[in-house]
Design brief:
The protein is α/β, with parallel strands linked by helices. The chain has a domain of about 160 residues: Type I PLP-dependent aspartate aminotransferase-like (Major domain) (Aspartate Aminotransferase, domain 2), CATH 3.40.640.10. It is built from ten helices and seven strands. The termini are far apart.
Length: about 280
């Protein structure tokens, strides 16, 4: 099968840097970080990191992160790979054995385009259709997408994406779910736990939990070979204890997550009312 058509390769800079805009900017729509975070237990955990923990090398930090995420996602910790945020895991994918096969349906997250220059497929627009993903998987590619989509916010249902991946086992689907907690019912959209042999899911507390300053994240896959595809050698301490402590505390605060999700649904309805008449 011929390779999918490529799209223009021009990539702009990453957003969210307040130094680039100056003090006059009140709202930055490029970051998509929840304004209600971090959860109070995360702040308490950060303040509670002891001097002894700071002096010691963070040998247990990876295990702590994977165990916290395993509980949060309801999957074995052994099916997870730790990284310094989704961004590092994406670059790990680029450096690994799967990197040469990656394609990125556009429009797409800036970091995807930077990690895989020349890998864009489809046509520029508001959102890439499901058919572009299916076509790329059918060509045997490793397809990197965000769901919910960044930057449009549109989300494919988990069953939709799972059906496409199952229909094209010759390809690999890598899904960044950094924004899935913003959905009213995240389980409807998340592929974590799906029984697919060609699936990798990326997760991070950066966006929903307001912890973008803590560079931690995980990749989940039921397939060891695919986990190795994002788990390249990075030295003895790939994450720090200072960052894992608040992340683990945030993931455990299910009451805050439920309340914040409900508030965001109300906020979204309010925003629709404000911009709808424009």
């Amino acid at each position: 099968m011929p390779a999918p058509p490529t799209a223009p390769t021009r990539v702009g800079p990453q957003g969210g840097d307040p130094r680039a805009r100056g003090a006059s900017v009140r709202v930055d729509l490029s970051t998509c970080v929840c304004r209600y975070g971090p959860p109070p237990p995360a702040l308490a955990a950060a303040r509670g990191v002891s001097a002894e923990a700071l002096r010691a090398h963070p040998y247990g930090a990876v295990d702590q992160l994977l165990e916290a995420y395993g509980r949060y996602l309801g999957v074995p910790a052994g099916d997870l790979v730790a990284g310094r945020g989704v961004s590092e895991l994406v670059w790990q994918l680029a450096a690994g054995p799967l990197g040469e096969r990656v394609v990125v349906p556009v429009p797409a997250y800036t970091e995807f385009r930077q990690a895989f220059p020349g890998a864009a497929v489809g046509a520029p627009g508001v959102h890439h259709p499901l058919g572009v993903i299916a076509e790329a998987l059918g060509s045997g590619a490793v397809v990197l997408v965000a769901n919910p989509h960044n930057p449009s916010g549109r989300a494919f249902g988990a069953q939709e994406l799972a059906a496409v991946a199952a229909a094209h086992p010759q390809g690999v689907l890598v899904v960044d779910e950094s924004y899935v907690e913003f959905c009213a019912d995240p389980a409807t959209f998340s592929l974590v736990g799906a029984h697919l042999a060609n699936l990798v899911v990326l997760r991070s507390p950066s966006k929903f939990f307001g912890l973008a300053g803590c560079r931690v994240g995980v990749a989940w896959s039921p397939v060891p070979a695919l986990r190795r595809g994002v788990d390249r050698p990075r030295g003895s301490w790939p994450v720090s204890a200072l960052e894992v402590a608040p992340a683990a505390a945030a993931l455990a605060d299910t009451a805050w997550a439920s309340a914040t999700r409900a508030q965001l649904v109300e906020d979204g309805a309010w925003l629709d009312r404000q911009v709808g008449p424009l």
